[in-house]
Amino acid sequence: MTTTQAQEPSRDLHARREPGRTRRRPVSDPRARGRGRRRIGRWAQTLVVGALGLLWIYPLLWVLAASFKDSLDIFSGGLGLLPDSWHPENYLRAWRDANFSGYMMNTVLITAGSIVLVVVRCAMAGYVIARFRFLGRRVVLAVLVATMFIPTGLFVVPVVELSDLLGLLNTRTGLVLAIAGGGNVAAVLLYVGFFSRVPKELEEAAVMDGAGFLRVFFRVMLPLSGPVTATVVVLTFLSSWNNFFLPLVFTFSTPQNRTLAVGMMAFQGTNSTDWAGLAAAASISLVPIVLLFLLLQRYFVEGIAGAVKN
Amino acid sequence: MTSMSRTTEPRAARGAPRSAGEVAVAKRRRPSLWIYVFLAPTVVLFGMYTVWPSISSLVYSTLEWRGLGLERSFTGLENYRRLLADPLFWKSLWITLLIIVVTVPLRVTAGLLLALVLNNPRLPLAGLLRTAFFVPVVATTAIVGFVMGFVLDPSAGPINEALSILGVGPVDFLGSSRTSLWAVMGVHVWKWLGVTLIYWLAALQTVPRELLEAAETDGAGPAARLRHVTLPLLRPFAVIIVVLTVIETMQIFDLVVTMTGGGPFFSTLATEVYIYDTAFGAARPDLGYASAIGVAFGVLTVLLMVVLTLVMRLARRRQEER
Known about the structure:
The complex is a heterodimer. Chain A is mainly α.
């Protein structure tokens, strides 16, 4: 779509795009000509970057297209995206026979559970760390910051052993606890930063009205933290939906608990020649998260940009 | 972290409170049970899933331990002695380092170039283009790994189709130990460039538009504005963005496991993949040794982060002195 529009930089289109500038100067005015040239320059930039952008999403489009082809068509189809004939039954094979319906369910449940746990525990901890002085406050903060950069590879053996001892290994609950229980230091710090900036008058007013600790938190503070919570939700959503290491080691002996990513690995291991089915399985896993991103793009972008601003 | 100093201190301790509201708040500010109730979930869970694992890994790294539920015996520093003499461990560190050294500068510079183009509010379709570069970021890494297995396939993948049109190839990107690591790095850059782009766009938002307009009125062309206004203002962000990008790059596990599994001939064996293979992948699991690799890798990671943070502080201080 970029290409077709860019080929014809018609003046009318621009006039409509910039309503404040519709009154055109006489053509002889050199400034107007300069602006026109700059407009063409901008469209040229769009064209170049747009071509790169198309190239960027081409691999994903190619797989989406392959999910509707038959395996033979994929092998001979080359670079083309449109299938010779449509094969929606690829999806049936992945969804039902390869149990991607179950994997989808697991992924949704585990992601939702992780988001709830992270938001609740990090908001609560962030609130008290930001607004109260108490015994051990510095220790808690120091431990949080000190463990911020420790890689998963260091945790994974003890976490598996602990979950095994608690009878939580091979369960979805255990996986949620492992994903959301540890780490997520950034979420706590985001809440600490936010709550320490809330003016204390708000709190005082609520206390004057007779609100207790819980009421102040749930009725005043938590609703105020909407933007931070949105950021935390988005970041947790991305990290738990995309988590691979932990789901992989938590489902060795319970294939029915696999997430989409781990299920994909298993499916490839057993059906490595069923390219069309694999492409359908990949599309089942990718399309929902991409659609969700397109809908909530603002929050995703702000959530990630927040890392730089803070 | 700046928030630490901002915390409101109990007023009552400092002198007479000024309003009834402050009295009530001051009363409530005394350490109450609720504080610890609110802290409990994080302290307990974080203790179980982050603090305890970090400490017990140290202990496990001194054990001979061949699988969950099996007997363990203390072997002292034997695992570490083995580690120092293990060519695979050194190779894996080298691979991890190489991935950082190659992909981070690529992402940071390419992200900056793209951001400079896309930041122009009058650029047609800028929002749509930004979206295109960001889509791979949200795509599940492990799934992307498999997808790229198709895309890079030597017999039918589109990349080799395109190469054959140019009269090159076919190249077995993932099957040859000469190309596999470069293919993984290429996909890594493809996947994560969008994040760096967003970082730079956020940084560019802080450049005041009036300043650029003033420079324009003074006759500065686009190149001069970029060199003398925009880039100097972006410098403090550059360090932050490099650090964030390095942190993300440490997590290359998903992509490597799903694209190559660490092979062929260990050519893509990043350290976390080696830990996984030793602990869970091998025919004979070796949890003690895996813990030793984990501890060594953790220490090196934290050291790298400390160095980067110091560099960041230094850069910021220099910025403030100006």
